[in-house]
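Assess this today:

___
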Amino acid sequence: MLVDIAAQVGLDAARGRQILDSNLYADEVHARERFYIDLGIEAVPAVIINDRHLVQGGQPAEVFERAIRQLTAN
C-alpha cells in the first residue's frame, strides 16, 4: 500500500493517509495533469527539453544523445 511505502522511506504515514483520504491536492494534481496532456504527453516517462521538445516513453541513451545533438546544432 502507498502509505506503507511512504512510511518505509521516512514520511509520516498518518499524514499520508489523511492526504490520500481527502481531496486536499486533487485540484492541483488535475491541473498539472491537464497541463501535460495539453502539451501532448501521453507516455511515462516523458522528458521535456528546454520546455519545448518532448521525448516520450522509455528510450535508449542514443535517442537522448541524438536529440541533444540536434538541439545544440541549431
In short: The chain has a mean pLDDT of 91. The two ends are 47 Å apart (CA to CA). The first strand starts at residue 46 and ends at 49.
